[in-house]
Specification:
This protein is mostly beta strands. It has 2 domains: about 35-145, Cathepsin D, subunit A, domain 1 (Beta Barrel), CATH 2.40.70; about 180-320, Acid Proteases (Cathepsin D, subunit A, domain 1). Helix content is about 15%, strand content about 40%. It contains 4 helices and 26 strands. Strands 2, 3, 4, 5, 6, 7, 8, 9, 10, 11 and 12 form an 11-stranded mixed sheet that branches. The protein has a 6-stranded mixed beta barrel with strand order 16-17-24-18-21-20. A two-stranded antiparallel sheet has the order 22-23. It starts with a helix and ends in an 8-residue tail after the last strand.
């Protein structure tokens, strides 16, 4: 009898040991299978602005995609249309002086994925009538909020945005469509805006994307100080506007680095007003020391439409491959 009891004990211990050993492998195998949470089609305007279809409660809306803020921002007229009650912002110094109120945004869904409740500052009112697009309310702007706590794939050649559960399989790349890719480090600044680092003409530069513009841009002061050209340099191309808006000044620059070679990309010079450094604290890149929510270099629709991008905030990385197809605005 004692012998049988001992055999059963050994058997149970063996089973427990087998379970203990197999569980991490089971979890690891599960973590190595991508789990898609949402798959939506973006709306792209002729001037390069991107609109994300979403829902607030049972109301179908659009948000303009832009990395201007970490938090989503609503138009005052849109908040009123949605029946959201404004609350005063107690001075934190994180917002421009004209932003004085916010609303609690609940029931925000992209596809079937429900985001947690969050505060949404109200943009100053410019028009009493809310903006509409395709019979949907344009609620406001959404940026880095979209990229926190989930993985995001952006494929503008197909006008496609996908959300995934964070891919935690360290032994495997989340880039499931290609074996070759560039891996760029990312972080979120103090205001929650997504910033990543790439190489431009062989120099590390802090960059962002989804600016709401077709052109990729560089701070003219950064161009002058670190790359040796400005509005008056040789190689500058000037495009005059037909509608009376300021002329555009362009210069060719190259994206460099492993897996991200793109020579002679057309980059527009934009005015700068932020203090620059050639070696930021985090990645020793060209960046700003006095400004949040903005960076020296911004990828516009022109370059983003040539890329397929996977953003993994948990891995602190942006994965990039090049697309062969280019979309036409619609």
């Amino acid at each position: 009898m004692k012998h049988n009891w001992m055999n059963r004990t050994v058997l149970y211990r063996s089973i427990l040991l087998l379970v203990a050993i197999s569980q991490p492998f089971a979890l690891k195998a599960a973590d190595c299978e991508p789990e898609m949470l949402a798959d939506v089609q973006l709306r792209i305007s002729p001037d390069g602005r991107l609109y994300l279809p979403a829902a607030i409660g049972d109301r179908q809306v659009y948000f303009e995609l832009s990395m201007g803020w970490g938090l989503p921002m609503l138009q005052e007229s849109s908040a009123k249309s949605l029946g959201l009650m404004p609350k005063p912002i107690n001075g934190t110094g994180r917002f421009p002086r004209e932003i004085t109120h916010y609303v609690q945004l609940e029931g925000l869904k992209v596809g079937n994925f429900l985001y947690a409740k969050r505060a949404a500052p109200l943009l100053p009112k410019h028009d009493d009538d809310p903006e509409m697009l395709d019979d949907r309310l344009v609620a406001g702007i959404i940026g880095s909020t979209l990229f926190q706590h989930v993985d995001v794939e952006l494929n503008l050649a197909e006008r496609q945005l996908k959300l995934f559960r964070p891919f935690r399989c360290l032994a495997q790349s989340p880039v499931y469509w290609s074996r070759e890719y560039a891996k760029l480090p990312l972080h979120f600044d103090e205001a929650g805006a997504l910033v990543f680092t790439l190489e431009l003409n062989g120099r590390k530069v802090e960059a962002s994307m989804l600016s709401g513009a077709r052109d990729s841009t560089i701070d003219v002061n950064a161009a002058r100080e670190f790359f040796g050209f400005d509005e008056n340099s040789e190689g500058i191309k000037i495009v005059e506007s037909e509608d009376g808006s300021p002329r555009k000044v362009f210069h060719a620059m190259s994206l460099t680095g492993p897996g991200l070679e793109l020579p002679d990309a057309r980059v527009r010079l934009r005015p700068g007003g932020c203090k620059l450094t050639g070696s930021t604290k985090i990645y020793r890149a060209i960046g700003y020391t006095t400004c949040l929510n903005t960076v020296p270099f911004v990828l516009g629709f022109d370059l983003l439409s040539q890329m397929r991008i996977y953003v993994s905030s948990e891995r602190d990385a942006v994965f990039v491959t090049f697309n062969s197809n280019r979309p036409s605005p619609r």
